[in-house]
Please model this.
Amino acid sequence: MEFTFSPLSEQALVIETGTIINKESEQAVRKLSSLLEKQAPDWLIEVIPAFTTVTVFYDPCRLKQAEAEQELRLLIAKLDEVEAPTPRQIEIPVCYGGDFGPDLSFVAEHNGLTEEEVIEIHTSGIYSVHMIGFAPGFPFIGGMSEKIAAPRRKSPRLRIPERTVGIAGMQTGVYPIETPGGWQLIGRTPLRLFVPEQDIPSLLRAGDEIRFTQIDEAEYREQEAKLDAEHS
Amino acid sequence: MLNIRKSGLQTAVQDLGRTGFQRYGVIASGVMDPFAHRIANLLAGNAETSPTLEIALSGPVIEFEADHFIAICGGDLSPSLDGEPLAMWRGHFVQKGSVLSFGEPKRGARSYLAVAGSFDVPPVMDSYSTYLRAGIGGFQGRALKNGDSLKTLPISPARLNALKNQNAQTPDWLIPPARYHEQPIVRMMPGRQYALFNETSRLRIFEETFTVSANSDRMGYRLEGPELALEKQEELISEAVAFGSVQVPADGNPIVLLADRQTTGGYPKIGQVASVDLPLISQLKPGESLKFRHISADDAQQLYIEQEQQIRQLKIAIQMKREEWT
Model:
């Protein structure tokens, strides 16, 4: 597989594993970031994997850009020996509609469905996490049915509570922390996606397989209280 | 202990940033002007990585509950101690009960206060930086408020006394302050998507003047100037961004991403500010303007290496001056 290199700055190189998002380019990103994690050279500062790129930050006092590229190419030669981490399967319980999902009716109307049908479609899919970015622990999730796609709100909300599940275009996602945003909000999960007290502060990782399941408000309250208690 | 009588516009604990967690979407945070932060720490006898207080535009009023040794570097926000103007870019012994306050922002937008021994705040994900939006790090995950008490780590009376005596006996202590120009020329490398911009935009970015809009903060500075556009509109695949990435959303106004930037972005990047020139931007106030000048990645790296050497020399000079008197 041919990777291209280009500088992001005088201390970062972007390695592109492909020009379109597909299984191959994503798999290469996962293998490469896992390799860089396991065999981190001492000049390596930080790695940011995305859809089709792995960006490598290095110590600019230690090596020149061309040297960094050379070192990275040597590492990449070992890529075939690396197994991509096995995808984990994670269930995300969601309490749909009501105060938690004020835009559920909009998504239903927009698609000529009932609210129940939207929930039915949202919970029947198997999704995959492409990457984590934008906010701490925020997953870019692929695999949503176009039957429940909905445009972003014309004027974004100033505050979207943490744990809110939303839809924007063909994407669905969960807000780990309170953020402004233009997504259509359909529900809320009791799970904490951002866990700063853990070594890996993100519940989800690139490559994870996700399913959404429906819970009612009582179950939501119970699970939320339980999870918050574990972390306090 | 520092008593925060008045918090000022935005005063928060920061360090050199949260490294290693951007892959989980955790933003880097950290100081906007790393050079000033590092020098303030060195003058206060701290490690460069110790936390400082980042003070923006309208500064706080701080009472010292004990004797301390401090240094203030960065933008000139007219600091004074008990009403007397306080020189920046040098260390000062401050007596118990002294009150530090700030006046008009003269030049620059952010000052860094380092206190010998540094602040007693718990590290979160290996950093003392305040991540305001997530409410973690620094002092209780937030900017300081009126009435807060910010603890400092204990420093031995002998050490404090040594700092005080050495300082008093060294009148020419002043470190050459960083120069924050009103209309800086900021060196910038072509960005990852530079070639996707139309010819006019590629020329304009390096020729015309851009003004910092009021809608600017620690996350990024929005610039107003000639409109920039891609040769043909296209959706890009989100990828990592860096401190100083200059991205251009569809409205054509560039945004310089700063300390509180998101980890990834999907807008095309027309440029990347050379690391050594980042303070020139971070210290601009809304309404002030700048020009970009082209630099290659290799030259930007060379400047970075030279600045690191310069800081190392300053560090040695500070240590030597201290040793002269011990």
Chain A has a mean pLDDT of 93.
